[in-house]
Amino acid sequence: MTKGEIAMAQPPNIDGILITWGDRLFYPGNRVVKVKPQPRLSGDAARLRAAAIRKRIEATVVRRAPQVMVKVTGGGRGMKAIAAHFRYISKNGRLEIEDQRGETMRGKDALCDLADEWRFGGSLIDDVAEPGHRREAFNIMLSMPRGTDPLTVKRAAREFAQAELADHKYVMVLHDHQANPHVHISVRAESRHGKRLNPRKADLHRWRETFAEKLRGWGVEAEATRQATRGQGRNYEPLWRIKAKQDGRLRTQRRVSKNTPKALLNRAAAAEAWREIARALAASGDKADRDLARGVVRFVSEMSDIGGPGRGQGGGGRNEPSKPQPIDRERQK
Predict the structure, then answer these.
(1) Per-residue DSSP letter, 333
(2) Separate counts of helices (H) and strands (E) for the chain
(3) What number is the average pLDDT over the span 105-114?
(4) Where are the domains of the chain?
(5) Rg of the chain (C-alpha set)
(6) Is 21 exposed, middle or buried (0-12, 13-18, 19+ CB in 10 A)?
(7) What is the pTM of this model?
(8) Are 59 and 65 a contacting pair, CB within 8 Å?
(9) Is the pLDDT of residue 256 over 90?
(10) How far apart (Å, rounded) are the C-alpha atoms in residues 14 and 38?
(11) Which pick of 61, 89, 185, 257 has the fewest CB atoms within 10 Å?
(12) Residue 66 neighbours by CB distance under 10 Å
């Protein structure tokens, strides 16, 4: 038997393939894989990692778990703007505000005391900042779809803030009077150690992961899958544009979907990862894996936007990735 025949006779390392391609889909910041060798993995750590990937695949393609939303909606550069946001999220003191110590407050007087505490609690924050001055606070919104228990959203948001915003002053307010229950968090940029918060795209992805994890800890199905992984490319409107549109002040239109070369490339890479995962699961001796493979194929076939240039627009670009390969039924028997 030749080396090639021996290699073909060996069963594929299903867990290794899931970890390699699952990391690309669900944990893009954790590793960069430039080639496609099957990683040599063994032991409990690899099995646990592969099991976690399987759970995320099932949540995404079978159960279609609700996706969390974490957005930075803005931030104040001066104390007047920060205090105005306190009034906005608390409905001028009518809603309960909770701070980083777990203490709660209501009323206009409490808002004034809170503003003074932030103004002098660290580097002085002037009432009005100079043009181009750095942000002294960031406004964050954590949201879940309609039907999620609002108090559970608040508990998960509290645990999120404790994990991600430790050593910072922050306040949070639950809004449950609208369709989607959500929590507004305003966080002071400077920590008590002098380190400044400066959230980037990778931070936002981690924040989504943390919020989803805290929700799952309370028994709520929640996922934080990237849009590209789901074959989507929607441009969400920032809060200022939504408010401007409501007030009739919006003057410019924005593309509904992301069709930049980078966005298309990300969706094509996700399609490739899903195909590799489907092939690996389809070759498994475990019926549950083969059932999951069928779910992956259905999921990818339903993606309206996934793929290269021209996909979903009636085009047939040369760089368009191929459709997921059909699962070999004979191999599943």
Answers:
(1) -
(2) 11, 6
(3) 96
(4) 12-65+260-332, 69-217
(5) 24
(6) buried
(7) 0.73
(8) yes
(9) no
(10) 9
(11) 257
(12) 18
